[in-house]
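Side project, low priority. Logging it here so it doesn't get lost.
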Amino acid sequence: MKRAWVVFVVVVVGHMMGVAEGLGVNWGNQAAQNLHPRNIVQMLKDNNITKVKLFDSDAWVVKHFAGTGIEVMLGIPNLHLASLADKYKHAQEWVKANLTRHLYQGGVDIKYVAVGNEPFLKAYNGSNLQTTYPALWNIQKAINEAGHGDKIKATIPQNADVYDSGTKGPSAGDFRPDIRATMKQIVHFLRDNNAPFVVNIYPFLSLSLNPDFPIEFAFFSGGAKPVQDGQITYDNVLDANLDTLVWSLRRANSGNVPIIVGEIGWPTDGDKYATADLAKKFYDGFFKKISKTKGTPLYKDEIEYYLFGLTDENMKSIAPGDFERHWGVFRYDGQPKFPTDLTGRGSSNRMPVGAKTVKYLEKKWCVYVNSSETPDQLAASMEYACTHGDCTALEYGGPCGKLDNSTKVSYAYNMLFQMMYQDVESCDFGGLAKIVTRNASVGDCLFPISLDTDWAWRLGTDVTSTFILAFFVSLLLLLDL
């Protein structure tokens, strides 16, 4: 019993019609090529998803959500926290450059600003402890001063490792001792400003990082052995984790702060538990659960959820694990990976609607050519391809992990070739590779083709003013004016 409770706090190494109530999605862009924002808007609309959470506030991206009816949460990366905390005028400039410019009749529906992202992860060794709260304060003050404080709230997406319950269950939940004083300041601020507590929760990591974790407790299919905490019975880790947060907020005298789950999902590759079948199992149960809008045993209000993520990102750090590049419900090109019903009410065999009119580069692939190379030469070329490309799909028994060794080399070569926009020089490898026009995909293992994202259009006159404004804002910060 005690062993089961230990894993209720996840440590990350990292009512709309037709869709489950309160459902949103994270869209990150740490990929060699990204879908055009027009494709993203189309995908969200086609799947009746009306909320999107961004990890930055790039004006060119944000402007594409104007007039769409899609609610946007802007993001401020952690690297800006110190500057925003240092001087209030930096927050004023940020709000002017990234928020108010989009707030016009028919403009962007901005509801939240995420100040940092998981700034108190244990892996950061307290580096953001002194700057996060002042940055939050300054941003909300600047939003208020601009006349938008009633509608737009600043908050901080936190990893679930900011609270814990030890081995005693959710009812013993409290914020971590090393950050408890700061967390109390933050949640009091959220309480007083009617802002939500945003938390990222990953049942997948509870399972992947803890060999003794009861597998079914990560899902919602009813197969888990129930766990008792006082008078409350829990049959899944999500409810237990959220109620641990509820108790933590209560102990901080902020029990009325609304809760948003800022990230939740299941990857499809890069770990023995990261498969399309298990992702489908997780999402099918999750969508059914949230479609009932019952909250948790302790938190009865409706909860907003943001899926993580929309598409795969093949340039994310894999320090936490290879799975980091495979969180997408959709592939890199916006095509769905597995069937699931986003409404939670119908057939789980329904495919989400993928991106339309996607532009690709030429149908060319880079493949390995058997020659007289030495094993050391082949190993060196493979290491180079994987270091500069993405080989995370070649392990753990997924479709690409089952390829023979020679075909794995071709996969590695092709990934780098495509990530380099099919640059001919990237398909050489000392004479060990060649470009072919016949599809190199094998079975269910896709050898992708680079997206033609038309970024040259982005660098045209329509964004000149954006870059000029960004330049002067950055100059002001550097000169400390």
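Brief comment: The chain has a mean pLDDT of 90.
Revisit when time allows.
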